[in-house]
């Protein structure tokens, strides 16, 4: 919620439900068929529709996964950890459904130039990931996004230092920028 507080057109609320004593907010749990076993539960309400919320069905309950869920389902621009706004825009152009190989190459070259111009070290690292993903996607096609996503998710299940987990989660967030861009027209 703190990360998204400045996102226009998005309201984040935490509703506690007590299953003892006065059972505060139990009426909401009943209305949206949320049982104690479902906690924590995330529901996304679009355009004021209170009758048909979209449920977050992720097993890996973390901030980045929830942000990706909201970004994908609501079509709201949310900058995930390690993502760069300008490079997310390039990822969207690169991953458009009917983009030609020539246009992808131009976007790739533009990303390389913009990456070289960066001065902040963390931004350089993130930009290098965008560029590498574009390079591999040019070689292997769009199937690379899903295979790389799966590879990184598998790595995240292993024993890793907190720093390495954060680095891999950042890479996963950047990969999601390409996947969401490619799927956006189908889902929204």
Automatic annotation (TrEMBL):
Entry keyword set: Endoplasmic reticulum
Domain Endoplasmic reticulum resident protein 29 C-terminal: 83-178
ERp29 N-terminal domain: residues covered: 5-78
Signal peptide extent: none
One of the Pfam families matching this protein, by short name: ERp29_N
Record's GO cellular component terms: endoplasmic reticulum lumen
Annotated GO biological process: protein secretion
InterPro entries the record matches: ERp29, ERp29_C, ERp29_C_sf, ERp29_N, Thioredoxin-like_sf
Entry coiled-coil feature ranges: none
Descriptive protein name: Endoplasmic reticulum resident protein 29
